[in-house]
């Protein structure tokens, strides 16, 4: 799920304290923490690089006894942003941390920075835009709604970036983020406002807001918006999600544009997870065709090859469906119930170049909310970190921390306490006629699109947190 269900206006009818949390799943103790370190300790490899944890402190609980519909049927006609969902439907991350997962495939930004050819840069940026939604595959748990003023920071020296985000608005819920390369080679920023719609059998989240990537060496800026995410089978059956809609990536320096079509699965699921599109120059000449699946991989080929292949396919030619294997990648790219039961991989077109391939998930991912290895590390509270983090950082949020540790009853009570504290603070501000002031971001205009945006004010990493709000 996207954020947007929890509310400080809830009547309490849907309090998670009224629900019994199911028993925990068994987890192989040998896999529970491969580094042999507890939550506050991160092992240091011999080469001096920190080894991040590979498992959560406790396995996830079973959701088999719960139905999203059992909650939503009481809410027909209400705004979804004003519904408090039981904690059983959550995953132990804040939406601010979920946004940070955009950076999992940061090597694609590094690749874009290294290319001299603007077409190759656009290809890498397109792959990065697709990879940003890949971690949501099979992630049907909703992240915690950030509290107003909540923040999250992440510095990964091994990956070459640092990241800061802040919840800048509660109604409507808006999350702003800013990231920069440690080598001063890129800036990545944006704000996201998920617009939720309940269609009876499904919940649709349209992630409004502009995403901007600046490649400083090339003096280029790219902007785009994410596709729509839809969670199916909220009434009965297994929850599953799809991404669909048109995504346009614009290079504001060259006029090049990449148009990507995240296809809806269709009646028989033939198009499930498929992405197709093209890159065109400022004169609308197609430079290359992009195809693949956002859950697997992305390839590109020249338009002539693509058109010829498709024509032969329509004529019933003997085109064989090749599985995308390691051999394919090495040979073609030296650099490199309603739910449809579809197991086929991308139909590979000979001569294509691999742009991106999804990372393998940990073997115990299914017992860790289907987290990727990157996601597993996001809420890790390393030794000594509390002394330097902003007091508003997600890692210090007690409901998420208790849920991660398997203390579900405590997590539910803490979540209610935090929401009540947020309500009380809002009433106090209204009483005193005091406006809320964001700390690290301000409202402004995106310099490339001319649309309203939230812009980073700077100064976070100076670590002057004396005037941060008390939200926990």
UniProtKB/TrEMBL annotation:
Q: Which GO terms describe its molecular function?
A: cholesterol binding
The residue stretches assigned to a coiled coil in this entry are: 401-435
Top-rank taxon, per record: Eukaryota
InterPro entries with a match to the protein in the record: OSBP_sf (IPR037239), Oxysterol-bd (IPR000648), Oxysterol-bd_CS (IPR018494)
- Where in the sequence does UniProt note compositional bias of the Basic and acidic residues kind? 310-333
The segments labelled Disordered in the record are 310-339
Q: Which GO terms describe its cellular component?
A: cytosol; perinuclear endoplasmic reticulum; plasma membrane
Q: Entry's SUPFAM superfamilies?
A: Oxysterol-binding protein-like
What are the record keywords, sorted?
Coiled coil, Lipid transport, Lipid-binding, Transport
- Please name the Gene3D superfamilies in this protein's record: 2.40.160.120, 3.30.70.3490
| Pfam families, A to Z | Oxysterol_BP
Q: Which BP terms does GO give this entry?
A: lipid transport
Signal among the record's keywords? Answer: no
State the family it belongs to.
Answer: Belongs to the OSBP family.
The molecule here is called Oxysterol-binding protein
